[in-house]
Amino acid sequence: MEYSELIKIRESVRNYDPARPVSKEVLLKILEAGRLAPSAANRQPWKYVIIASNEMLAKVKTCYDKDWFRDAPQLITVVGDENEAWIRKYDNRCFIETDLAIALTHIILAAADEGVATCWISNFKPDVARNALGLKNHQHIYAISPIGYPRTDYKHKETKERKPLTAVTEWI
Fold it and tell me: CB burial class (10 A; 0-12, 13-18, 19+) of residue 107?
């Protein structure tokens, strides 16, 4: 799909068909986009965890209390390793969140290109998700997204509510 069209049609879906998981072949294409994402100093401080087993889905889905989230047939988590992240020497600012945001953006756009729905979620209980995945202290989940196909009754949004370009642009 043409990139400009892709960014127009991509939307956060909150209506998943639990009976339609994404095939491994399609997931691998989507994850490849995340693998190719740029990162500060090319550190690539990420790991993508696909949650697909009923046992792990039941554990992880308790971290976010929304009915539509529980319907997703699979979840993808973006896990960052703070030991691998680049830190700017001038102010000791760690860029792991920037790196992971870029990677998840690549994944979400690749999913949309494949006709697969996603929804970036940051408002989850991190301790519940961490414990479910058995992460080490230096590993953190920065975002979770359901990944799957919308139900047949899902209504795509006609337009996106965004500020006009003039409100978010400054020329100096």
Answer: buried
Q: Which residue has the tokens 């870029």?
A: 102
The answer to whether residue 159 sits within a structural domain is no
Q: What is the CATH number of the domain that holds 64?
A: 3.40.109.10
∠135-68-159 over CA atoms, to 5°? 110
Quote the number of domains for the chain.
1
Global pTM value: 0.95
Spacing of C-alpha 39 from chain mean position: 16
How many residues in the chain? 172
Euclidean distance between CA atoms 17 and 150, whole angstroms: 5
Check if the beta carbon of residue 112 is closer than 8 Å to that of residue 124: no
Position 1 scores a pLDDT of 86
